[in-house]
Design a protein that fits this description.
The protein is an all-alpha fold. The protein has 10 helices and no strands. The relative contact order is 0.09. It is found in: Nucleus. InterPro entries: Sec_Metabolite_Reg, XnlR_reg_dom.
């Protein structure tokens, strides 16, 4: 798909070839490229592989924020959305691209850090905390239409498990289904990104020939740094679970809005929670050997 898009020249901004494309076709080409760019960012994050489209490897500008309901091939000027005008569905494309930019930027820096020879756990945790702060700031800067109440990143919820579904239904009762699906996309993606920041610190550092690794890893398990990583990962996992639960509820009434997420999103949720859980359980044998 990426190679086809490059062959079609979608990675080159239409303005670089004046007179070749009209206004509507230019915007359509930009949307097609950034849609593929977002798909690449999402699937590469999901599969823990390097993205097929590197950063700054194309010239296609971001699409304009236009009113999708009136923007047609007959338009001679772009019907731009005003900053205080329509929000929600009309702005989702641009918001999704900005979300993908956040994911790629943090993943790029994380990959660069992990390429260093034996980075210390403390350095990784400092990087994770900085990136999590950026994610929180990104969420706080969202337009009101895209904000979810009580995102929970960095905080543990005090709501009892049996009342979580009731509170979820109450909080989303007046939200249009399309807008809710977009909010849940943001919620799941940002929390999955935050959880991935802490997982490397939960993996034991071992070498096959060293018998002292078990005692070393047991000491790491009780360190404040590992506790910080565990809390960060599990708190982010809670956000992924919340988004998955709400996606299930949404699928009952609007399956068309969850057609690509009911399998992919929930599988992602289960696999991530399992990864965190198995990473923590890995230390149990070391505890038993010490005590």
């Amino acid at each position: 798909l990426v190679n086809i898009a490059r062959t079609m020249g979608l990675g080159v901004d239409p303005d670089l070839t004046p007179g070749k494309y009209g206004l509507y076709e230019s915007e359509a080409r930009r949307r097609a490229w950034w849609d593929i760019w977002w798909w690449d960012a999402y699937t590469s994050t999901l599969s823990s592989r390097a993205p097929l489209i590197p950063l700054h490897a194309f010239s296609t500008r971001l699409p304009l924020d236009v009113d999708e309901e009136v923007f047609t091939s007959a338009c001679t000027s772009a019907p731009l959305l005003s900053p205080t005008g329509k929000e929600g569905v009309g702005r989702w494309f641009g918001m999704r691209v900005r979300l993908a930019q956040l994911v790629k930027d943090i993943n790029c820096r994380t990959s660069l850090l992990s390429s260093l020879e034996q980075p210390s756990a403390l350095l990784s945790l400092e990087h994770a905390s900085q990136c999590e702060t950026e994610i929180k700031q990104w969420l706080s800067d969202l337009p009101p239409a895209f904000r979810m109440g009580n995102e929970g990143m960095g905080e543990e919820s005090c709501v009892p498990p049996q009342s979580m579904a009731l509170s979820s239904n109450a909080s989303h009762g007046g939200t249009p289904p399309t807008l809710l699906a977009q909010r849940l996309d943001i919620l799941m993606t940002t929390h999955r990104l935050a959880m991935g920041l802490y997982l490397p610190s939960l993996r034991p550092h071992s070498s096959p020939s060293s018998q002292s690794d078990s005692h070393s890893n047991a000491r790491r398990e009780t360190s404040p740094q590992i506790h910080q990583a565990r809390v960060g990962a599990l708190t982010a996992a809670h956000g992924v679970i919340r988004a998955g639960r709400d996606f299930v509820e949404l699928a009952c009434t609007r399956p068309d809005l969850v057609r690509r997420k009911d399998g992919l999103g929930l599988s992602l949720c289960c696999s991530l929670v399992y990864d965190v859980h198995s990473g923590i359980l890995f230390f149990v044998p070391f505890f038993t050997s010490v005590f």
